[in-house]
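Bumping with the actual sequence this time:
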Amino acid sequence: MRSVAFLRAINVGGRRVAKDELISVFVDLGFGDVDTFLASGNVLFAPTPPADVAAIAGALEQALGYPVPTTVRSADEVRRIAEREPFSAEEIAAVDGKPQVILLFTPPTGAQRRAVLEHAHPADRLVFDAMEIHWLPPGGLSDSVLDLSAISRELGPITVRTANTMVRLLTRL
């Protein structure tokens, strides 16, 4: 069964990374069945040897020349995220935004959860799970007033994917 490494800030802000370059880093670490999905930093791989997130992040930084915050989810974890539907069809239909998943790199404390909710605009719907926040923005991401930088300052590195991307990833695992 494969896992997915979610890489923050890949192919944004002028940092372009070719698919083959990402695959090479994972193959050099000894992982098999490596592939990427979309150009947003999703690397699928067979976690043999077991996925060591620090080793992956270190190898990516060495290969690319800048830090690449990384988190890994197993196929079962991706399935749980993809199958979770915290927002009703009516809630989704009532807004122009698409459901998002904010992937966390460390579990949040109760105080951190409360602080994040303080950063949310009332129109932004946030639902916490163990290592992610399901988010229903009222409109497009560029229109949202949710301060993802403030959330990152509270929780550490985060990366965002659409809920649909999580569903599509599940079909590739």
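The tokens above came from a reply further down the thread. The CA atoms of residues 15 and 128 lie 30 Å apart.
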